[in-house]
Each structure stands twice: as C-alpha cells, then as structure tokens.
Design goal:
Helices cover about 55% and strands about 0% of the residues. It is an all-alpha fold and about 110 residues long. The protein has one domain.
Length: about 110
C-alpha cells in the first residue's frame, strides 16, 4: 500500500494525486493502470471501517475505486492481455456490494480465484 504523504516515500501525496482517465489498456500504459488502481485502493483502505453505513468520504473512495476497476475490467475484456491484476475482480465486486448492497456481488466475490 502506498504511503499517505510525501514524507512516506513515493514523492507524491496520494490524497491529492489526480487519477487520470485512461481510455485503453496497452503494454505502454500498464504501469499507469497499476499506479492509479494502487492509489484508489490505498485511499479506500485508509477510510475503510466495518460498517454498512459509509461516510461521505468512504462513499467517494468506494465510488472512485469501483469506477476504476469497472473501467479496467471492461477495457481489459477488449484486449488480448491477461488480467495482470487478478485481485481487481474481487475489489470490483466488493466495492459494488458496498455501493448497492446487492447480494449478487457476494456470489461474485465467492467465485473469484484471487
């Protein structure tokens, strides 16, 4: 997990890092996908609590991470690349469940091979 401030080593503050929208997945932009997903996942984990009633900050992090994993999985489907981030399916289903509480996501979580 990335540190929260520049003092914690990566040279940027994840709370202010702007996640760019990537329109495709290519060999050239795989590092950007990994960085963007890592930043979104770190923000999410930093606000995570074991409650079903998320705060506004948690909802923003959940929405950001869900949107990014959703886009990643949809774009990946249109390539010949293997999923280089297998946990993305689990994170996608988990954040989807956190948003809408639909139990179909629980089945998808159980079916992930992560």
């Amino acid at each position: 997990m990335l540190g929260g401030t520049t003092a914690q080593s990566f040279g940027f503050d994840i709370s202010t890092y702007k996640i760019d929208s990537l329109e495709s997945i290519t060999y050239e932009n795989i590092p950007l996908w990994i960085l963007n997903l890592s930043v979104a996942l770190t923000r999410f984990v930093q606000t995570l609590t074991l409650t079903m009633n998320a705060t506004d900050e948690q909802k923003d992090c959940i929405s950001e991470l869900f949107g990014l994993t959703d886009q990643y999985l949809k774009l990946l489907h249109n390539t010949q690349l293997d999923n280089f981030l297998p946990e993305s399916k689990y994170v996608h289903a988990y954040t989807a469940f956190m948003q809408d509480k639909d139990t179909k996501w629980i089945d998808e979580i159980k079916d992930t091979d992560y």
